[in-house]
Design a protein that fits this description.
Elements: H1 2-9, H2 22-38, H3 42-56, H4 65-81, H5 87-110, E1 117-128, E2 131-138, E3 150-153, E4 162-164, E5 175-181, H6 187-195, E6 201-204, E7 221-226, H7 230-242, E8 249-255, H8 264-273, E9 277-283, E10 293-294, H9 297-303, E11 311-315, H10 318-331, E12 338-339
Parallel strand pairs: 7-8, 7-11, 8-9, 9-10, 11-12
Antiparallel strand pairs: 1-2, 1-6, 2-5, 3-4, 3-6
Helix pairs in contact: 1-4, 3-5, 4-5, 9-10
This protein binds flavin-adenine dinucleotide and protoporphyrin IX containing FE.
Flavin-adenine dinucleotide is lined by residues 23, 149, 162-165, 178-181, 183, 185-190, 209, 228, 231, 317, 341, 343-344.
């Protein structure tokens, strides 16, 4: 109803959106839920909304659109709520929307960096049937922090922006490495794994996310990563190496089976070079697990206790992140020590 009202009252906004809108619909709702859930942590909310506002420039969103979107949203909510939509509630929602929209709009207007970077694919290697490592190069390096993610658009799927996490720390040559898993029925991921080519030009949006190395903390680290959720961990490990850090890192690296752990040799080599890094492979299926632990990441990590003295970062599919956060909270890990990006918790 919201989008119907928006496109009816402001038809020019329809062209900003892709034809198939399932993904945007769920992201918009998730963003609102995330703001509501974290509204009592104003600093985090403001960082999130400023990033989102800067990111919206790449869609062609202008300051004037915030008003028409807010009107359509409130009218749709009033329509759906019926008699439960009181003036008091309307007032509260109007305030909430204005709070969100003002931060996003101001961040977009004051940003001097580009809305998008053009990146040329320099390397494409299919490591597994459903997984590829892709390197893209920009003429000016994208100023992301290790652990952040970027949203990308590929020429094969115009206007379908998707988030990917760089697997390296920012590089002065402007090279960003991505690890991409093709999900069944996935529009963009399958095209990247099967059809992207060296020479393709991708558009990349500004950095987002707060899953960076907590620089204000000296605590040791725990990384719990599944599949391509390894990427932000690799970027952070590279930063730790570059800064000669001595913080201890425990890395639980999970996959469906041993063959799925595509980067295990690279991690083992890193751990031999840097004794502060301990890698624990985890597989869900027990046939020939080798030295891997068997179980879900949530089960295996919490078997070791609460890890209360560590900063913990969790990265992977929404289901994996949700299960791991729950298991760790139950094991006694303080919430304040657990870090993950909002959308990855689904
Ligand atoms: C912060 C963040 C960082 C990310 N980093 C990476 C990364 O480094 N590498 C990477 O490969 N992906 C990453 N993703 C996931 C990526 O953004 C896409 O969601 C994923 O590639 C699917 O896009 P698609 O267009 O192929 O699928 P869509 O066409 O959007 O979806 C097709 C179907 O697949 C389902 N689906 C979507 N995502 C998944 C999933 N992860 N597992 C199972 N089913 C799914 C959908 O519900 C839908 O039914 C990240 C996501 C977020 C939010
Ligand atoms: C309260 C204000 C808003 C919130 C919380 C919000 C939230 C979001 C989120 C979370 C995404 C997905 C981001 C991504 O995948 O990179 C998104 C995408 C998008 N938003 Fe917004 N948005 C807001 C306002 C607006 C406005 C005013 C417009 C202008 C019409 C707009 C247009 C779009 C478009 C075109 C997309 C891309 C859709 C797609 O890729 O499927 N948004 N928005």
């Amino acid at each position: 109803m919201f989008y119907g009202l928006l496109f009816y009252t402001a038809p020019e906004t329809r062209d900003l959106f892709p034809v198939a809108m399932g993904v945007q619909r769920s992201r918009f709702l998730q963003a609102l839920i995330h703001v509501l859930q974290t509204v009592d942590r104003p600093d985090d909310v403001a960082i999130f909304l400023r990033q989102l506002g800067r990111d919206h420039r790449k869609f062609g969103v202008l300051a004037k659109h915030y008003e028409v979107v807010g009107d359509a949203l409130l009218r749709a909510m009033a329509e759906v709520s019926g008699p439960r939509w009181t003036p008091q509630i309307e007032h509260a929602w109007r305030d909430a929307y204005d709070f969100v929209a003002t931060i996003m709009r101001d961040a977009a207007e004051s940003e001097r960096g580009p809305a998008v970077w053009m990146a040329r694919i320099t390397h494409h290697q299919r490591l597994l049937d459903d997984l590829a490592v892709v390197r893209a190069q920009t003429s000016v390096p994208i100023p992301y922090a290790p652990g952040q993610y970027l949203s990308i658009e590929i020429p094969q799927r115009p206007r379908m922006w998707r988030s990917l996490s760089p697997a390296n720390a920012p590089d002065s040559d402007g090279i960003v490495e991505f690890h991409v898993r093709a999900v069944p029925e996935g529009w963009v991921s399958r095209a990247i794994v099967a059809h992207s080519n060296v020479g393709d030009v991708w558009r990349i949006g500004p950095p987002m996310g707060q899953l960076t190395l907590a620089p204000q903390s000296e605590r040791d680290l725990l990384m719990v990563v599944g599949g391509t959720g390894l990427s932000p961990a690799l970027a952070i490990l590279e930063e730790l190496v570059n800064t000669r850090s001595t913080r201890r890192v425990g890395l639980f690296y999970g996959g469906r089976d041993v063959a799925d752990l595509y980067a295990i040799d690279r991690l083992r080599a890193l751990s031999r070079q840097h004794p502060w890094l301990t890698v624990i492979p985890v597989v869900e299926h027990g046939d020939e697990p080798g030295d891997a632990e068997v179980g879900t990441l949530a089960e295996v990590v919490s078997r070791y206790g609460a890890w209360a003295d560590r900063e913990t970062m969790i990265s992977g599919s929404p289901d994996m992140v949700r299960a791991t956060v729950s298991a760790m909270l139950e094991a006694g890990t303080p919430l304040i020590r657990i870090h993950y990006d909002p959308f990855t918790a689904g």
